[in-house]
Amino acid sequence: MNIFSYVRAGDVAGAVREISGNSAAHFIAGGTNLIDLMKEDVTRPARLIDIARLPLTRIEETRDGGLRLGALVTNAETAYHPQIEKRYPLLSRAILSGASPQLRNMATNGGNLLQRTRCYYFYDGATPCNKRQPGTGCSAIEGFNRIHAVLGASDQCIAVHPSDMCVALAALEAVVHVTGKNGSRTILFADFHRLPGGTPEIDCNLGRDEIITSIDLPSKGFAEHYAYLKLRDRKSYAFALVSVAAALEMSGPIITETRLALGGVAHKPWRDAQAEALLNGKAASTDNFQIVAEAIMRDAKGFTHNTFKIELAKRAIVRALKHAAQMGTRQ
Amino acid sequence: MNHETQRLPQRTRITLRVNGSDKQIDVEPWTTLLDALRLYLDLTGTKKGCDHGQCGSCTVLVDGKRINSCMTLAIMKDGAEVTTIEGISNGSGLHPIQQAFIEHDAFQCGYCTPGQICSAVGLINEGRARTADDIRELMSGNICRCGAYPNIVAAIQQVMHAQERNTNP
Q: Closest approach of chain A CAs to the CA of B115, in angstroms?
């Protein structure tokens, strides 16, 4: 770890003031990703601004019938919150499928969104990486790329976003509230994370001087028909090779609304509104699910070691949709 | 950045309530809670395994919750209550989890054991595990290189069942 100075922020305005005045400063909350990146010398902040004691630690009702998740509520508290379990079980399942109990007790909701990729080359300072050091090249494209992206990648970066929680938040169309030196604004979840394009060093659209204050869940929680399917190399405590958040609204056997988000396949949780719309008004059948899976993966491109993800994702989409549709119909 | 020319930040005095008594230590901002416990407070029961939050051997309870002390800066926990393996029993004999680990031979080399025990105590406090499968899933943050997993699960199950019997006679 490099040498750095430390300050504890007293309120959100103070935190924003601190970060605005120092381009080498970094917020720290749960620390589960940042401290690791610092130990690996990937991130070298000159100053840490401790935001862990800011009053962003509540889960509360919003005026439009949704829930507001404070940015500093831990992942564990969120997943086990009675209202989340009851109204947003998809989110609860997704959170509990990630990391370990210890890490979930530490990691915060805001920090979960800001996790950096687990691409091996991003972590390995001895190799070129455009995300870690822009302009040096991407070692993964011609290297070991089994865990890498098959959708939305660029010739600069094929890293994937590691979060499970964010896959559910994408499906639920959460809204991120942020505060910066020019005031507060909201960012739709679909617009929060970015594709790598020519600037893979920028993971998301949060401004440098901005802090996440909350993540709002709209009222619709899809608690009747949902599934979070995560496929990985071991059964627990591993990042997804492919994950699927599926949420359906149904009228009898007919699907009236579809939400599908994929993890482990792209630089951000992957949504495809056109493909989702194919299911509207259709019966919940394997054939229809396969059509959607083919549509979502139509532009998928594999690299040397990860082509298997394309077929894996298609099958995972079909399975997750089946689980979601069949909920409540089995005795 | 040239570290040599950079002025070292001052050490900061923090207070941790460790195993029931207040301890004041002076730490640099980058001192992890794990290093603070081992190097400054001579509590070497908490182990440094991977030092990256992957193995769980550094697990301690902070304000009652199990966390990885290697991924925690001590300075951020000023004022917190920390329980390590040295303080896991109430002073009169072993904690039931410790006793169960002995009865079930739930370790070989013992290096992961302090973390396993603290994690198991955290798991039981959380009250989420019902079945052996739940225990396996909720202990997945603790790696045992010797492979004592079946016995660890059996030890935790024994304590869980004993507590259920006590609360539901």
A: 11
